[in-house]
Amino acid sequence: MQTVTVLGSTGSIGVSTLDVLARHPERYAVYALTANRSLDALFEQVKVFSPRYAVLADESLAVEFAGKLAKEGIGTQVLSGEAGLCAVAREADVTMAAIVGAAGLLPTMSAVEAGKKVLLANKEALVMAGPLFMDAVARYGATLLPIDSEHNAIFQCLPIQNSSSAEQERPFSKGVQRILLTGSGGPFRTTPLADLVGVTPDQACAHPNWSMGRKISVDSATMMNKGLELIEACWLFHTDASNIDIIVHPQSVIHSMVEYIDGSILAQLGNPDMRTPIAHALAWPERIVSGVGSLDIIAQARLDFEAPDEQRFPCLRLAREAAARGGTAPAVLNAANEVAVEAFLSGRLNFVSIATVIEQVMAKVKIVEPLTLADVQQADSDSRVCAIEIITAKTSA
Ligand code: NAD
Ligand code: MG
User: Fold this and answer.
1) Is the CB of 38 inside a 6 Å radius of any atom of ligand 1?
2) pLDDT digit string (tens) for 364-384?
3) pLDDT at position 172, please?
4) Which residue intervals of the chain are DSSP H helices?
5) Ligand 1, closest atom to CA 214?
6) What confidence tier does 171 reach under pLDDT thresholds 50, 70, 90?
7) What average pLDDT score do residues 259-288 get?
């Protein structure tokens, strides 16, 4: 029996994780559930899973939540704030890192530094702190498994999937030639370019194949999600961005591919449902049922592929530039993106300006080699301040 903490349990990945865990009560016990402010959703989850701890990131809500639990006679202990998140992240056997954005960095690192099994959905944490994050994985002997469907697919197609962390280094020395990172192209793949400036948050969040949180949905519409995933893949698979091709595959049936020097290309296919990579990572190296139905490949009939259009998706170029610059450049890219996406979602910025704001922030904020997480957090906060200034100047112009 393994104990599991689900960071961000009320989100899209969190809910899918609990769905898989509920299918295997003999294997997994929920240790802790966490949310930012979604009291009601967290309350319902606590009633079903009876975790030892429930954590509210927003400290001001913790007392109210504890009162709600006490009234129902529920014994779950309530913790709050970053300290609470970090504590439950390091105490369970397995931690699912499914907080969205930079807010997930410290809790995820807490699980890594405790040498635990870490299931990484929170790609922003790895993008921001790549070298420090991967050093910590090696130093503390953590087991890092990718939840992002593309990275989970690549992991399944690599020759290293059943080996120890040490052997997972350098797949490119074992006959791998290229990683083909697939992405659907999002809801605006064929929208006339002139119409992009007027698209609404709801249109951007209506992803053709996946149902996800709003931030990652907008990232999919700009394809910044694929840019972040490019950087994520470089760290996870110990390679350079030049060995990774981004391929637009509108059906999201192939979740990514790996090419070998003998000409073989291995792909992982399945219905677009995050419970597959979640179940894979939870049970790895074993397999468990996930609740996902089998792919009807005959009904599917065709799979299309095209090259990404960098004029339509300038965020891809910005992410490649950040990957090439290294240091704190990916943290700057990520923070500027988070602020711009938030401004778009709240109606203060148009869709096309998301990329413009990120480009301007990247040109302004100084890039350094981060020696500690504090350096990464400094880059993150400097970029946020800069992005807010740029957005404010735009909206008051
Ligand atoms: P979501 O918005 O649905 O859920 C986010 C979760 O994080 C919620 O539980 C929320 O309460 C919590 N949260 C938000 N802000 C927080 C804060 N400041 N402090 C603490 N907790 C906070 O997001 P999601 O779609 O589930 O995505 C979660 C992560 O997984 C993201 O990093 C995303 O890129 C990644 N991911 C998601 C999918 C998907 O299909 N949804 C696929 C691949 C990767
Ligand atoms: Mg993905």
Assistant:
1) yes
2) 999 999 999 999 999 999 999
3) 80
4) 12-22, 39-49, 62-71, 81-91, 105-113, 123-140, 149-157, 201-205, 214-222, 224-236, 275-283, 297-300, 314-325, 329-345, 353-364, 373-396
5) 2
6) confident
7) 97
CATH 1.10.1740.10 domain position(s) in the chain: 326-397
**Amino acid code (one letter) for 308:** P
Fold classification of 326-397 is: Rna Polymerase Sigma Factor; Chain: A (1.10.1740)
Instruction: Identify whether the C-beta of residue 306 lies closer than 8 Å to the C-beta of residue 324.
Output: no
Q: What spacing in Å lies between the alpha carbon of 181 and ligand 2's midpoint?
A: 9
Nearest CA to ligand 1 atom 40: 212
Six token digits for residue 189: 């793949």
Which of 48-62, 83-97, 155-169, 227-241 is least confident? 155-169
Query: Domain 2-146, what architecture?
Result: 3-Layer(aba) Sandwich (3.40)
**φ and ψ at residue 10, rounded to 5 degrees:** -85, -5
pTM for this prediction: 0.97
The closest ligand to the CA of 86 turns out to be: 1
Give the distance (Å) from ligand 2 centre to CA of residue 133.
Answer: 19
Structure tokens at 230: 């490019």
> Is it the case that residue 301 has pLDDT exceeding 70?
yes
CA distance 81 to 289: 34
Rounded to the nearest angstrom, the distance between the alpha carbon of 338 and the centre of ligand 1 is: 12
